[in-house]
Amino acid sequence: MTDAVRLESLYKTYDGGVTALDGVTAGFAAGTFTAVMGPSGSGKSTLLQCAAGLDRPTAGRVFLDGTELTATGDTAMTKFRRLRAGFIFQDYNLLPSLTVEQNVVLPLRLAGRRADRAGSRAVLEQLGLGDRMRDLPERLSGGQRQRVAVARALVTAPAVVFADEPTGALDLRSAGEVLTLLREVVHTHGRTVVMVTHDPVAAAYADSVLFLADGRLAGEMRAPTADAVAERLAHLGDRAMGAVA
Ligand SMILES: Nc1ncnc2c1ncn2[C@@H]1O[C@H](COP(=O)(O)OP(=O)(O)OP(=O)(O)O)[C@@H](O)[C@H]1O
What we know:
It is a single chain. By secondary structure, the chain is α/β, with parallel strands linked by helices. It has helices at residues 44-51, 74-84, 100-110, 117-126, 142-154, 172-187, 200-203, 226-244; strands spanning 3-13, 19-29, 33-37, 59-64, 67-68, 85-89, 160-164, 193-196, 208-213, 216-222. It contains 8 helices and 10 strands. Keywords: ATP-binding, Nucleotide-binding, Transport. Residues 5-239 form the ABC transporter domain.
């Protein structure tokens, strides 16, 4: 199995001296759904940002779909990222003045591609939003907005979709719908999803969970259940608190 994303000895130290990543090596196999978890401040968002080419590590290498991002200049990296990576954020990040359909095709436009109306319509229909294409985001519920964001993340047929707390702003039911959708994106459509979450219930939708503590890998769990994830997290929390005390 090839890795859609590969991280090799990743270090990230921010200005001011905080080491957010302290030598992380990990692979995310193509066609898998991975949750990244860990105590607050353990480096989850930093890992996602570096893996996605939104930020650069201080040292180490990042491969996205076989291309080394860390060896690529800023302009080429942005171009590559726009076509090969999709993004889903907690607060949806939809542009309020664009319709649902215009939001979905935006990554294609930004990448200089023709907006594929038939393709975007097909994705929106699959996600149950076929009749909302001309609406502005403000007319949609949170769960519907996040489904639009999922459609937008998929429109370029990316090698990997990165999701940062995608259910953090949703009620339980909408969260379940979005997570089920992400699982389908992986298991029915063969995509790769890497999701940062605080929520053990959300993590249990993934194929495996990667745990971080103090910027380092702190284990992996395959076929996670919410209870098992919560228990492991509690122990990581103990350790992180112990390191501070
Ligand atoms: N832009 C920044 N400048 C300086 N320090 C930062 C910056 N971003 C993050 N950090 C620090 O790096 C460490 C890791 O942060 P990061 O956001 O990656 O953790 P996290 O696990 O995603 O946390 P949370 O669960 O609270 O969102 C923290 O100590 C944080 O304060």
